[in-house]
Design brief:
Elements: H1 5-13, H2 18-33, H3 39-71, H4 76-100
Helix pairs in contact: 3-4
Length: 101
């Protein structure tokens, strides 16, 4: 017995026809073009933004701690460079999020 293309589509995709599969495929492609983000993409964005904020802040704190140790100060450079690093990280994260949109 010879099967035609629609019978093979039904076997492969169950009750869906090739037309239904094509429609779903087009819908998925359209949503990706329109910027529809999935869970993992948002999670990745949160992680990259977190690194953009944390690394400059921690780097500033370590540099400030080093300068304070060399100069004999208490924590004046540590706090100053921590705040500068945090501000720079927030600015960088803001620019990154704005570019992602």
């Amino acid at each position: 017995m010879k099967t035609d293309k629609s019978d093979r589509d039904r076997e492969q995709f169950g009750p869906l026809s090739s037309k239904d599969v094509r429609k779903r495929s087009e819908r998925i492609k359209r949503s990706r073009r329109e910027g529809d983000r999935g869970f993992w993409q948002y999670l990745g964005l949160i992680g990259s933004v977190g690194r953009m904020i944390i690394l400059p802040a921690v780097g500033g704190a370590f540099l400030g701690r080093y300068i304070d140790a060399k100069l004999g100060d208490r924590i004046s450079w540590t706090l100053t460079l921590l705040i500068v690093g945090l501000a720079a990280g927030c600015f960088g994260a803001w620019r990154h999020i704005r570019e992602e949109r």
